[in-house]
Amino acid sequence: MSNKINNSMSLAKPDALDISTKQKVALAIGFIGLFIMALALLNTNFPNEGLFLTLSLGMISLGVIIYSREAYLTKLEGIKNDGVWFKSISSHGAWGYVLGVVLTTFYIVLYFFPQYLGLGKDGAENTGLVHLFDPLSKLLSGRPASQWFVYGTLYTIAILAFGYKFILKYRHNRYQQIRTGSVMFFQLGFAFLIPEFMYVMNNDLPYYDLKSVWPLNYYIFDEWSVNGFLSNGNIGLALIVFGILSTFIITPILTYKYGKRWYCSWVCGCGGLAETAGDSFRQLSSKKMSAWKLERWLIHTVLVFSVVMTVAMVYTYLGYDKNDFWLTRGLFISLVIGFLTLVFAGVMFFKSKELGKDAKYGAIGFFSVIALLLIMHFTGTTEHVFFIKGSALRSAYGLYIGSIFSGVIGTGFYPILGNRSWCRFGCPMAAILGFQQRLFSKFRITTNGGQCISCGNCSNSCEMGIDVRHYAQKGENIVRSSCVGCGICSAVCPRGVLKLENDSMDGRINPTEILLGNDVDLMDLVNKK
Amino acid sequence: MEEHIVIIGNGISGVTAARHIRKLSDKRITIVSAETEYFFSRTALMYIYMGHMKFEHTQPYENWFWEKNRIELKKGYVNNIDTTAKTLHFAEGDALNYDKLIIATGSKPNKFGWPGQDLEGVMGMYHKQDLENLEKHAPNNDVCKRAVIVGGGLIGIELAEMLNSRNIPVTFLVREDSFWNGVLPSGESQMINRHIKNHHIDLRLATNLKEIKADENGKVKSIIIEETGEEIECNVVGLTAGVTPNINFLKDSTIEVGRGVKVNPYLETNIKDIYAIGDCAEQHEGINGRRSIEAVWYTGRMMGETLAQTICGNKIQYNPGHWFNSAKFLDIEYQTYGWVYSERSCPDYEKHFHWKHEDDTKCITVAYHKTTKAFLGINTFGIRMRHETFDTWLTEKRDVDYVINHLPEANFDPEFYSHYEADILSTYNKQLQIA
Ligand SMILES: Cc1cc2nc3c(=O)[nH]c(=O)nc-3n(C[C@H](O)[C@H](O)[C@H](O)COP(=O)(O)OP(=O)(O)OC[C@H]3O[C@@H](n4cnc5c(N)ncnc54)[C@H](O)[C@@H]3O)c2cc1C
Ligand code: SF4
Ligand code: SF4
């Protein structure tokens, strides 16, 4: 008795299901688009870059569009997961690993060897792939492209094209369509176009993607960034005030009302890519209890790291001019510690029961942050914290978390760890939002009485690796800090068991022993104690 | 030493009983099964063949769960039970003693003595082995040029959907003149007929199987239709004309059996310390107007929950609450709360209000009492509704006016979905004026 699956090398469908001719043509068009980029990478001199860039991006998008229309519009509306675990690319097969290696290599080159992409050093002309993107960059902001512009453009194209595919796939599901429209809008507008236009208006302003909130946007409080904002008059000041407000006021309010989904699966760019281009890999996230344990340790460690790192950064540059700024180092540290203590005390006072065993870990986290901050304050000299340079701490964070974790592993490993491994294991923003979602939010996934048949479709397609079935089959609501509210569990459930909703905080978490539909007296008896 | 509870069958009923006994006590627990090592969800078999999930994803508990909860698992087929020596004898030759025994052996597919029903390529769709058999005979549409499904029930339509997912042409023989209309009122049943045809499934209503023919190798070659004598060539025949309790191995024991293992409301058999739950149990009389054998997931689970109490010293009767169930017909989800009967079995006091959306994929039927107007039950297709709300309304004995007017409270569709309650209400009010 085995359930062995023979992975075919076919890119698209299992042995049983061939792709149509039209889809083959679509794939060909898309690959020609990619091939143009490959040629550019090899320093081919195109007579007219603008034309070839348009051609390349256009063909890639067109390929995806034709392919998806053929895949979904030729069938009746409904769940389209046939063969997901047969396709080599989406079931840890050979193509999955090939794609993983290609993506990972791309990220390594992008972050660490941009010269291979053709980035001109020290003002030199761009060559290669980056040069291919010069016309678009010049059109938008008048400056030549950088490797980040290339990346941003491809990223945006991916979200738009695969977003379109996703909307067709879920064309019976308005929640999915609207949500996807939202991530497409925020990527195109806020992450891609607006920063370019801001540059045109005022080219001293640091790059600022308005929707990217600290601590995800870990560089916003860097010295160069803050100075950049502050030296730019009212607009700069307004931006940095907005940055602070979005972390401390806007985010908590929206998370209270809607759960962390308002950000993670409606606005965020990392989430946007995961939900669109990464959709085919969502089933690959591990549902094991051990993965959940690892997740909780990792993500909170990153959170501690990012808080300490940010405070250390601000701390070092606050010291420079002693008396002409009201915010001194001592005051700053006291404010931070005061704020953290307030949050900690509030949680312990009102919510320690809900936290249960986790309260202990919360306390460990809190006290280690406080301890680190105090050590920093009392060992710090002008630019050293913990005896190392503050800037070294910052670059370590940027390297290990900002680049390697979020980019190389987070996206490069889509076909191996699933599409949300960064969001799940590494994102400090997700940790904060999740913490609030678990304790102070109206959001939950309601389980529909006793209707669950334990089939496992929900758990299988949860990109955050939540074992949704574990709760649903007990009639329990799902209130998990990691849930990004993508709604796919609800969509794929064949029995209509799950509903994402915002409702009152009372009765949100409802552990039951005996399920609805049973003997009423037995239910009372067992659930009472 | 702690009492040894042995459970035959690692399906939902046996496993639920084991889990709850463990919660309530320290008794030694052993689960026996011939089918698989670990509990899996039978309801998810179809998704494995369709490639939505792998087999391991259908297992609700990770493999370490059993040891951690001190539930011993034994793989083996019970040949017979010695009720005096309290011993199970296995086909593999070994034996196992018990203090208390729970029979939870589930069902097996019906076979009605059709000629050729045991040929290669003929299969039911119940056990994991059936799935493996299907994978062998119908891996794709080269090997399987056409499949014929016999029996239009919930498993039949799932099998049709499975084969459809691999582009294998399907002929679907249904004895009734409309799909599942022994259970569904005609408006719904006919909507599903059309939906099946939209999926390019060759649905043959009011059609019976006469015989299955073999090729020279003893494999399925074709089937003959009773009514017309038409021969349909095919490589696979799926027999999905219902299930019966899987209790053949009890025939020679002292345990009383009818169609299933006979039990009283405490789920006790005629032999002390032997109980039966789930699909294989047969009540002497149906409880609360239910059928005497209930072969659904939920009732197996409820019986397991109930029996665990009895075994752990809190003796209680199996006394299920309001009926509910659900299924999915290709792309259309179906839920039911309370009782809605089809025209064929409708009591004469029962009246229906039926509403159907113009897109032909959504409809509801509300059943109510002709004279008292009491709300009896609802079938809903393509619109998700809240179990808890209907459970409460049934308990509070609401009338049909109340239910239709408060339908928005019961809506369970995802956010941003269109709502149809206003349309339903106005249709209802119009019908009242005509009536
Ligand atoms: C394809 C399919 C889809 C379904 N979908 C739904 C649905 O959507 N909703 C719903 O409510 N119900 C559904 N059902 C019905 C539901 O699955 C059953 O009611 C339920 O699984 C019965 O559980 P059980 O524990 O009584 O028995 P089973 O799950 O049948 O478990 C019994 C086990 O005992 C083993 N066994 C039997 N005899 C012996 C022996 N002598 N020795 C050792 N082991 C033995 C069997 O091999 C089996 O593993 C579906 C059934 C099928 C087949
Ligand atoms: S639990 Fe559901 S909504 Fe939440 S992340 Fe998982 S699949 Fe998405
Ligand atoms: S998909 Fe639905 S029925 Fe299946 S396990 Fe999840 S909640 Fe239960």
Structure description:
Chain B: Belongs to the FAD-dependent oxidoreductase family. Chain B: InterPro entries: FAD-bd_OxRdtase, FAD/NAD-bd_sf, FAD/NAD-binding_dom. Chain B: It comes from Algibacter amylolyticus. The complex is a heterodimer of chains A (529) and B (435). By secondary structure, chain A is mainly alpha-helical. Chain A contains 22 helices and four strands. Among the domains of chain A are: 155 residues, no CATH class; 87 residues, 2-Layer Sandwich (Alpha-Beta Plaits). In chain A, the strands form two sheets. Chain A has a two-stranded antiparallel sheet. In chain A, a hairpin with a 2-residue loop joins strand 1 and strand 2. The N terminus of chain A is likely disordered. Chain B is globular and about 70 Å long. Chain B is built from eleven helices and 25 strands. Helix content of chain B is 24%, strand content 26%. At the A-B interface, helix 7, helix 19, helix 21, strand 4 and helix 22 of A face helix 4, helix 7, strand 21 and helix 8 of B. The structure holds flavin-adenine dinucleotide and iron/sulfur cluster (2 copies). The site of one iron/sulfur cluster has 15 residues of chain A, from helix 19 and helix 20.
Assembly type of the shown chains? heterodimer
CATH superfamily of the largest domain in chain B: FAD/NAD(P)-binding domain
Which stretches of chain B are poorly predicted, pLDDT < 50 over at least 5 residues?
Answer: none
Main-sheet strand order of chain A equals 1-2
State the order of secondary-structure elements of chain A, H for helix, E for strand. Answer: HHHHHHHHHHHHHHEEHHHHEHHHEH
Shape of chain B: globular
Instruction: Figure out the total of helices of chain B.
Output: 11
The class by helix and strand makeup of chain A works out as: mainly alpha
- Overall shape of chain A: globular
Helix content of chain B: 10-25%
